[in-house]
Amino acid sequence: MSVLEALRGGVIVSVQAEGGSPLNAPEAIALLARVAAANGAAGVRAEGLARLGAVRRAVDIPIVGIVKRQYDGFAPYITATEREIAEVVAAGAEIVAFDATGRPRPGGWDDAAMVGAIHARGALAMADCATADDVRRAAAAGADVTATTLCGYTKATRGTELPALDLVRACAATGRFAVCEGGVGTPAAVRSAFAAGAQAVVVGTAITNVDVLVRRFTSATS
């Protein structure tokens, strides 16, 4: 079975933690990935070379990998250059997700160059998009997967109601593997995403961001 077929119709659990959280350690992220796999997740999404490596050793389901790194003067920070692509693939992820918002990247690479570098290393390319134009441009550049990940997180899309079901429909219309990611907080939202044409759905904060979940409850005491 191919990687995308393994993900089709399933939930991908984003096993990431806040930077200062005790859960951000590789062994903790790997444990979250094991819990996700044991309870039916079709795949996991994880960040960072050490954490990705720990997740790869912990589970045998597909991994969507990213490396977050800020570059002065540039907005994209999700797998923004060839350096991050190399790190994600070296860690064992089958899919490399990258910022496909069209904003300038360090080094000046366009979507086609990013996709080409990912394919050259034997991995699949997942375009994290914010708008329908991003989706169409990424699909034309050869991305294997288009996703709604960055809708609501760019200046032009801030305030968009999430999950971005209209953008899911735009992803599905390209014929590429369509993923809904961002703002999926309930099982009902998962069902809505599939009804809109998603072929897989990413759920993160609602499952694995324990720091946020605890704060939601402790804030009710004040």
Question: Layout of helices and strands, plus pairs?
Answer:
Blueprint (H helix, E strand, L loop, with lengths): L2 H5 L2 E5 L11 H13 L4 E5 L1 H10 L4 E4 L15 H9 L4 E5 L11 H10 L3 E5 L3 H9 L4 E3 L17 H9 L3 E5 L5 H9 L4 E4 L1 H4 L1 H9 L4
Parallel strand pairs: 1-2, 1-8, 2-3, 3-4, 4-5, 5-6, 6-7, 7-8
Question: What do you see in this structure?
Answer:
39% of the residues lie in helices and 16% in strands. It is α/β, with parallel strands linked by helices and 222 residues long. The chain has one domain: TIM Barrel, CATH 3.20.20.70. It has an eight-stranded parallel beta barrel with strand order 1-2-3-4-5-6-7-8, surrounded by seven helices. Helix 2 packs parallel to helix 3.
Describe the structure in brief:
The protein is an alpha/beta fold and 222 residues long.
List the defining traits of the structure above.
39% helix, eight-stranded parallel barrel, 16% strand, alpha/beta, TIM Barrel, 222 residues
Enumerate how many helices there are, as a single number: 10
Structural class: alpha/beta
Radius of gyration: 16 Å
Q: What amount of the residues lies in strands?
A: 15-25%
**What profile does the largest beta sheet have?**
8 strands, parallel, barrel
CATH fold name, please? TIM Barrel
Shape: globular
CATH architecture name: Alpha-Beta Barrel
Strand order of the largest sheet: 1-2-3-4-5-6-7-8
Order of helices and strands: HEHEHEHEHEHEHEHEHH
Alpha carbon gap, first and last residue:
51 Å
- Fraction of helical residues: 25-40%
Which CATH class is shown? Alpha Beta
> Could you name the ranges where pLDDT drops below 50 across 5 or more consecutive residues?
none
